[in-house]
Structure formats: C-alpha cells, structure tokens
Structure to design on (369 residues):
C-alpha cells in the first residue's frame, strides 16, 4: 500500500475550489512560499485549472523547477500518484523519468502512455518489473513495440511471455451437457441506477472578509492594549486576500496569530500550511475560541499535531471543536483531566457525559479490585 503524508491545509483548500483568481495566479507562479513537496502538489492542482491562463502558468513553473528540487520528491514513497503521472508527461530529464519509473506509486496507465518511446536504459526499468507487466497486460505489448529495445531485452520479454503463458490460446472448454428441459431465459438483472454524486464542496469566491475598522473584534483585551499589535493588525487587514495568504506563509508568529482568526477560511488555513509554524503555535490555536471550526478540524485530523497531549486536551475542552473530533480524544486524556471534564459546564453535554462514563467505569473497576 502506498504511503501517504498529511496534506498541506492550504493546498487542500485550493484543491476544493472556489479560490479567488489572485490566489490561483500566485499559486501557479510559485509565488507562495511553501515546502517543495507542497509547492509541487499545488502546481499539479493548478495545471488543471479551468482558466487557461492559470493552467499554462502552473505548467511553465513546474517545467522550470530544477532536477535537484524534483528528484527527491519523485523518489519519495509518499509521492502523489497525480504528481508522478504529470512528471512523466511534462519532464524529459532522464533522472526524473528514472525516479518515476521506479516509484511503485506511479500508475501503470501513465507508464503505458510513454513506454514505446523510452530509450533502452529507461525501458530496462519496465522490462525487469514483472509485477507491473503482470498487473497491466497492455504494458507488455507496448514495451515490445518499442524500437529501441536491445536484443537481450526482447529475449527476456519472450521468455516472460512463455513462463506465464501470456498470449497462449486457452484450451477449449468441453461443451456443456444438453439440458433435458427447455428453460425460459432468466430475466435480465435489474441494475440499480447510480445515484448522482453530490457536488464537490465549492467555496464562495467572495468569502466573508473582515473590514479593517472591525478587525480589533478578534483581539483579546490584553492585545488591544498593545499599540504595536494594533498597528500590525490594521496593516494585515488592509491587504487583499492573496497578500494575506502570502503573509500567513511568510510573516512572524504574531501575524499568524492574527490571521488564524481571519473569517476568510482560505487565509486561516494558509496559517496552518506555513512552513514556519511551530508546535507551540498549534497548541495555542487548539485552545482559541475565536477561530473557525474548520481550523480546529484540520488540527484535530493531523496525526503529527495530535501526538501532543496538550493539543488533544485543548481540543476536547474547546467548545468550538467539531463534536466528532473532540469525542475521539476523550479516551486519550489522563484520569485527572477526564474527571475535570465530567463536571465542566463549558464543554458540550456529549463530552461531559462521555467523561462521566469513563469516571464511573474507573470507579467501578477500582471497587471490584
């Protein structure tokens, strides 16, 4: 099974659609300062953008990425299937093609599109991969049609066919015995009509924006007394959405602490996708009651962040955390924190009752012992 890695929240949000053109163009240009793996994932999304201007720009940016940048990403066990297939199509560097052909995540169908034109050295990577050849039979016929194969490669492919009896005429099955009674043909099975898939989530391009004069509403009383913080906040909230996203990825921790509270979901999730974000910030965000539930959901579904006890403890106690996320962490809390939850009126009733059940079960177990 292919390994997977956590998706960058910003990339994931852009993949869902409904993102302003300004941000899409910045993404396609590679102007968003992301980790290389996140940048490549994002470019792959943008090269399929319905607007040709965006798609063409993303393809150009991808072709200009250096081999040294791309090579480790294409060799990675958690490389995305779509990125590997795109690299086969868009790049002709021998080292990159070698990495794609050797990566088990690369789809057989993508290799089949190019296998007839591979030079001898790269074709060898397909010839020796018997798993692929058996799994995707058309690949064998296509590699055999490659005019650049050596005599030895053709010999080995012939032996492969003979070993696994590929292409041999199957033995004729004996005719069925005559039926003594003529039976009426069975009625054709009723095939249920496939339900129409629900439309993918589309975000409104005119996502809610906070006016600069109202931005102080997101501050704590202590923050409102800090003149420097107020000035920074006012500056951030005069920026366009695209520039806010860039600020979320590039500016300091204080700026991120403001932007995580931006009502525009794209901006807030850009903060979680920042390569500069720290565990301490995630702990802080998990306890904040003026961030969107989507921010808390993304934190709660990130396996790396929820390894920290303080993060799951804060998520459970935060009334804005989506209930299914919070409920899943109750059993991971320490006994003293579960006892506190059982009497905490500031958490949802379902969380409190879940904690009460744990306390009751622990008490009964202790009594029996």
């Amino acid at each position: 099974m292919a390994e997977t890695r956590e998706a960058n929240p910003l990339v994931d949000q852009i993949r869902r659609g409904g993102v302003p053109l300004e941000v899409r163009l910045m993404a396609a240009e590679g102007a968003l300062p992301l980790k290389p793996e996140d940048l490549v994932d994002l470019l792959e999304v943008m090269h399929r953008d319905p607007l040709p201007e965006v798609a063409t720009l993303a393809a150009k940016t991808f072709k200009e990425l250096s081999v040294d940048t791309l090579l480790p990403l294409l060799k990675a066990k958690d490389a995305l299937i779509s990125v590997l297939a795109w690299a086969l199509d868009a790049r002709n560097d021998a080292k990159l093609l070698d990495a794609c052909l050797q990566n088990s995540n690369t789809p057989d169908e993508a290799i089949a599109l190019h296998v007839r034109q591979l030079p001898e050295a790269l074709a060898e990577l397909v010839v020796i991969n018997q798993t692929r050849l058996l799994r995707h039979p058309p690949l064998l016929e296509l590699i055999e049609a490659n005019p650049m194969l050596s005599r030895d490669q053709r010999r080995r492919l012939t032996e492969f066919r003979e070993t696994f009896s590929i292409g041999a005429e199957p033995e004729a099955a004996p005719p069925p015995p005559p039926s003594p009674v003529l039976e009426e043909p069975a009625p054709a099975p009723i095939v249920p009509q496939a339900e129409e898939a629900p439309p993918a989530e589309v975000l409104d391009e005119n996502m809610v924006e906070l006016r600069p004069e109202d931005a102080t509403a997101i501050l704590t009383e202590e923050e409102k007394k800090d003149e420097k913080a107020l000035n920074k906040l006012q500056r951030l909230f005069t920026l366009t959405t695209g520039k806010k996203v860039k600020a979320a990825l590039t500016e300091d921790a204080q700026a991120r602490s403001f932007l995580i509270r931006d009502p525009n979901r794209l901006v807030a999730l850009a903060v979680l996708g920042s390569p500069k974000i720290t565990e301490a910030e995630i702990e802080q965000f998990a306890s904040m009651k003026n961030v969107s539930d989507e921010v808390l959901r993304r934190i709660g579904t990130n396996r790396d962040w929820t390894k920290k006890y303080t993060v799951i403890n804060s998520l459970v106690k935060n009334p804005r955390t989506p209930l299914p996320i919070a409920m899943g962490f109750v059993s991971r809390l320490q006994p003293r924190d579960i006892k506190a939850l059982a009497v905490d009126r500031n958490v949802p009733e379902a969380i409190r009752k879940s904690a009460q059940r744990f306390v009751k079960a622990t008490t009964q177990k202790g009594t029996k012992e």
